[in-house]
Design a protein that fits this description.
mainly alpha
C-alpha cells in the first residue's frame, strides 16, 4: 500500500511535468509559426495559405482533436482554419469525397 501511494505521487508529478513541457513546446511552435507567417506576409503582401495536399495532411494529423483544440493551437488564416475543420469533418464521413 505504501508503494502505491509513493508511485502514485511520482506518477502524478511526472504527468504534470510532461503536460507542462508539452504546453511550452506548443507555445514555442505557435510563436515560431506566427513569426514565419508574418515573414511570408511581409515578403509577398498576402497571408501564407496552405495547398490542398497540405490541408489534407494537416486534417489527418488533427483528426480526433476537438474544434476548440484545433482553434487553440492553430496559426492558420481564418479561412484556412474553416477549410481544415471541413476537411476533418469530411474525413469522419465515409460518404464524403476528398478535396
Amino acid at each position: 500500500m505504501k508503494w502505491d501511494i509513493m508511485f502514485g505521487a511520482l506518477r502524478k508529478r511526472f504527468v504534470d511535468w510532461v503536460d507542462e513541457k508539452q504546453r511550452q513546446e506548443i507555445s514555442q511552435l505557435k510563436k515560431e509559426s506566427q513569426r514565419l507567417g508574418n515573414q511570408i506576409e511581409q515578403a509577398t503582401g498576402q497571408p501564407a495559405r496552405l495547398q490542398p495536399q497540405e490541408m489534407r495532411l494537416l486534417a489527418k494529423k488533427a483528426k480526433g482533436m476537438s474544434f476548440e483544440q484545433v482553434q487553440k493551437v492553430s496559426v492558420l488564416h481564418p479561412e484556412d482554419l474553416k477549410e481544415l475543420i471541413k476537411e476533418i469533418e469530411s474525413a469522419d464521413d465515409p460518404t464524403s469525397k476528398p478535396m
